[in-house]
Amino acid sequence: MTNLSILVIFPLLTTFAILFCRNVTQIKWTALIGSLLQLTIASLLMYSYYGERAAGNTAQMLFEARYSWYSAMNIEYYVGVDGISVIMIMLTAFVVTCGILISWKIETLTKEFFFLLLLLSVGAYGFFISLDLFTMFFFLELAVIPKFLLIAIWGSGKKEYSAMKLALMLMGGSALVLIGLLATYFNTDMGGGVHTWDLLKIAHMHIPYETQLFIFPFLFVGFGVFTALFPFHTWVPDGHSSAPTAASMFLAGISMKLGGYGCLRVATYLMPEAAQHYSWIIVLLATIAIIYGAFATLMQKDLKYINAYSSVSHCGFILLGIGMLTKTALIGAVMQMVSHGLMTALFFGAIGMIYERTHTRQIKELGGLLKTIPFLSSVFIIAGLCSLGLPGFSGFVSEMVVFVGAWQQPDAFHRIATILAAASIVVTAVYILRAAGSAIMGPIKNEHFNHLKDATWNEKMASVLLIFAILSIGLAPFWLINIISPDTQIIMENIARGAIGN
Amino acid sequence: MREEQLVIKMNTDFFILLKPELSLTFIIFILLIIKVSDGMNKNSSIIHLANFLLLINFLLGFIGNATGTLFSDMYHTNGLIALEKNILNFGTLIISLQAYEWLKNHKHVIEFYILLLTTLLGMFFMVSSGNFLMFFLGLELASIPLAAIVNFDLEKIKSSEAAVKMILSSAFASCIMLFGISLIYGTSGTLNFAELPTLITNNPLQILALIFVFTGFAFKLSAVPFHLWTADVYEGAPVPVTAYLSVISKAAMVFVFISVLNPLFQNVQNVWYNMLFLTIVLTITIGNLFAIRQNNIKRFLAFSSISQVGFILLGISSGTTMGVSASVYFLIVYIFSNLGAFGVIALVAAQTEKENISDFKGFYKNNKTLSWIITIALFSLAGIPPTAGFFGKMFLVTAGASKGNYVLIIIAVLNMVVSLYYYLRVVKAIFVDENESPIEKIESNLYSKIALYICMAGIIFTGFASVLYDYINSLM
After folding, report:
1. For A419-434, how does the pLDDT look when each residue is reduced to its tens digit (9 = 90+)?
2. A55 touches chain B (CB under 8 A)
3. Of A71, A134, A178, the CB nearest to B470
4. B11 pLDDT tier (thresholds 50, 70, 90)
5. Which residue of A37, A73, B42, B160 has the lowest C-beta tally within 10 Å?
6. pLDDT at B119 over 90
7. What's the complex ipTM?
8. Is the peptide bond before B145 cis (omega within 30 degrees of 0)?
9. CA dihedral over B416, B417, B422, B428, signed as positive or negative
10. What is the pLDDT of residue A221?
């Protein structure tokens, strides 16, 4: 398992295989088997990553492979992974598998649906393994357009508006990223006027302070759009709530993490001094997003909107962690990415499954579901509890690490931001418990709820997979911290070196 | 004796260097003879023959290309120019394949091909010109027959209107360009491309000449603010001719522009860079804004092609070989993508006479393959990976950014997002919008199928595979 390209090639082959399927059953099984194998490949990757690290391999990136692509512009297909990427790849594999399991009942245009879903995952895998900025950007954009079609064709509600808004805002984000990347590229120097897209090389070059100040906002805001940076979060509620279940899971579970990963790996890592210079703005915006998201969620009556707005709030923790610029906070940010990815995928999955049966997502129309569909109701409650940060689930650990890391910044501004962010958890508890209380518990509001059927095998499997992942982080967070820690250390060293340089 | 050898050598040179033009002339003569002798009456057999000859002509372009000059530097050719001619040949072949559906019932097939190939011949001379005189000759040879084929839907008033607009505006542009050329001659005493670069300086008259020549080019490229003829002409012309106008004649103009602007006006780079800067900003932005408002799909593609030209100019503005190779590469990709879109539109227009975006609502219901083809082509035009359009746009923007003018880059890149909006609008109409009477299943003939599949293959593979770009780069 040392050839990383297989992570991209395999799902690509699966998408092609789907094109040649003859009927719906074949399509679904091809997609499922493909994604399960991909999950296996990702697990093997993590296993061999552990093995390498245990054997004392301290290289920054493992399993590197490098091929010249467009040599005239020094564009390379250059891949490699560190702990952060490995974790993100695992997350992607989990969410993709569960997304496919949950879309088992898609009946209109099945082939197209699974084709686009898997194409999206190709983009995500490619993005996480790329170490060449051009290749990375290629995969980032690859993961945008399938979403438009997924929402516009299979979505619900005001799907056309949401799809267009999402596509344009995300493309706007990636346009900003592109400007940042071009500026970075032309400010690198390999000698003799040759520039490079190589992430690691650029990290070791000293880009002038003023240039960094110019480039950083483009990169950070560009990637920030993907991860619901306030005030560019407006696509999140519309996009998530209109999307079909699997697409919501992908969007919240994977796509938003592309942004967080980019903010960390590209913006902060390559522009350490600018990151320090602007960190207060990031902290400010993240705190606003956290609080605003939490209060906006309070007002929502639709289950999907609740989860969408709470995603804004939770992704705020990722940005808060990055903006704090302490090692612990960065670890927390990465953990929050993983945790939020899993938790929100589970949440959207549960909402989707309930909606499929009750045909409503309005809280006041739901009630007493625990009596008729206990399994799904339990899944919903587990997702909710994870979201509000109950100890034992991944949400608690990752938010806790972010707060501890944030508290390490001793000045009043950061302290206040941390306190405010931590206080928002109370609001989270209110909306989650209220939603769970009136939708799941209480009397059965509708006769027709008595005849609902509980989860089928595929839905159970998806839920169990995600809950397993959530618990394995929540109960034993140390393996996760150990795998991320050395890489955040490297990012921190770059930041510290930048600080000395001035 | 030596003199005799020289003559023979001259003659072989003549045939080798002039091969693309001679082969086109040969085809034109064959068609003329057939026409005069009244030998073939069946439309389909004429089209088969023409396609076959064009294919041979295209393949001939790959063998025995040489570098050299003829007619005392009037005409020159090299690897890059040979490639450019191949590109034009290729595009014409694809258009001819796509035109089958429209031409098979037309009364004047041979005339169509003769006029079409004559314009192509003009473009070849234009691309190969080493002298402003030759350039102007080629330009006129290319534009006048073009106006005639714009009018080839003979019974349609819109078609004639388009032709008149076309000929008037193109004559006007030629005049302006000619005036610029005369100023160059007046100040430098020569029209030879090889001698001009050192003679052109900051002399005010020469700056004026630059402005006029530049304006002439802007007219022909339909860059804003000289774009007003474009949409009407595109709308009125038959679909294959629209495709030809938007792809081949644009490409030829760009090729000449590349070999005139920076090579000849090196000494006044800051002057033309500022002009180009303004033109690019206007072209991309206005092209986009108008494209949003269009309902006729040909007008829509007209405005989208205006904004695409803006991106090509962005690449050229860098004034480096990187910009040149990015532009040539983008044009190839653009041919694939635009002809992919036009191919589907031509089929639909020929069979249902429907040309509005709203007619395409629910198109996916009965025409799955064609829907995907036009969608992929539009995505390529929008610059979405993994299509080749993404790479084309990226390289153009990268080349443009090498000047460090980030205002320009920010405007261009944000316009890419705007352009995505209108391309997605068409995609949305095809896939999402409800329609009570969607377009029936379109039967595509073998020729258009081949053409469309070639375009698809081009869109998908020329991006991933860096071979083509590396090849272009090696010709610099």
Report:
1. 888 888 888 888 888 8
2. no
3. A71
4. low
5. B42
6. yes
7. 0.89
8. no
9. positive
10. 92
Across the interface, which of A71, A72, A142 has its CB nearest the CB of B385? A142
CA atoms within 13 A on the CB side of B81: 25
Six-digit token string for B4: 């005799």
Full DSSP string of B292-353:
HH--BHHHHHHHHHHHHHHHHHHHHHT-SHHHHHHHHHHHHHHHHHHHHHHHHHHHHHHHH-
Residue A138 forms contact with B (CB below 8 Å) = yes
CA atoms within 13 A on the CB side of A385: 14
Q: Cβ contacts (< 8 Å) between A163 and chain B: which residues?
A: 428
Q: Model confidence over A23-48: pLDDT tens digits?
A: 888 888 888 888 899 889 888 888 88
Q: Which domain holds residue B60?
A: 2-475
Using alpha carbons, select from B145, B143, B204 the residue that is nearest to residue B177. Answer: B143
Which tokens in the block code for residue A296?
């906006």
d(CA A472, CA A451) in angstroms, rounded, equals 35
Cβ–Cβ under 8 Å, residues B279 and B223? yes
Is the pLDDT at B229 greater than 90? The verdict is: no
d(C-alpha A116, C-alpha A147), whole Å: 8
3-state class of B188 per DSSP? helix
Which amino acid is residue A348, in one-letter code? Answer: F
What separation, in Å, do the N-terminal and C-terminal C-alpha atoms of chain A show? Answer: 42
Least confident of A325-334, B14-23, B280-289, B366-375: B14-23
Instruction: Return the closest-CA partner of residue A18 out of A125, A106, A130.
Output: A106
For B413-417, the CB contacts below 8 A with 24+ separation are B413/A175, B413/A176, B413/A178, B413/A179, B414/A172, B414/A175, B415/B284, B415/B285, B415/B288, B415/B307, B415/B310, B416/A171, B416/A175, B416/B382, B416/B383, B417/A168, B417/A171, B417/A172, B417/A175
Cα A89 to Cα A94: distance, rounded to the nearest angstrom:
9
Nearest chain B Cα distance for residue A142, angstroms:
5
Which of these, B369, B309, B314, lies nearest to B334 by C-alpha position? B309
As to burial, measured by CB atoms within 10 angstroms (0-12 exposed, 13-18 middle, 19+ buried), residue B315 is buried
Rounded Cα–Cα distance for residues A293 and A296 (Å): 5
Residue with tokens 């799909």: B297
**Cβ A72–B325 below 8 Å, yes or no?**
yes
> Cα dihedral sign for A417, A419, A425, A431?
negative
Return the structure tokens found at A239: 């996009």
**What's the CA dihedral at B160, B164, B170, B176 to 10 degrees?**
-170
Q: Find, in chain A, the residue whose alpha carbon is nearest to that of B397.
A: A182
Chain B CB contacts of A186 under 8 Å are 401-402, 404
Cross-strand partners of B68: B77
Residues of A in contact with B414 (CB under 8 A): 172, 175
Q: pLDDT tens across A98-150, in order?
A: 888 888 887 788 888 888 888 888 999 999 999 999 999 999 988 888 888 88
Could you tell me which chain B residue has the CA closest to the CA of A154? B432
pLDDT at B1: 45
Q: What is the pLDDT of residue A109?
A: 83
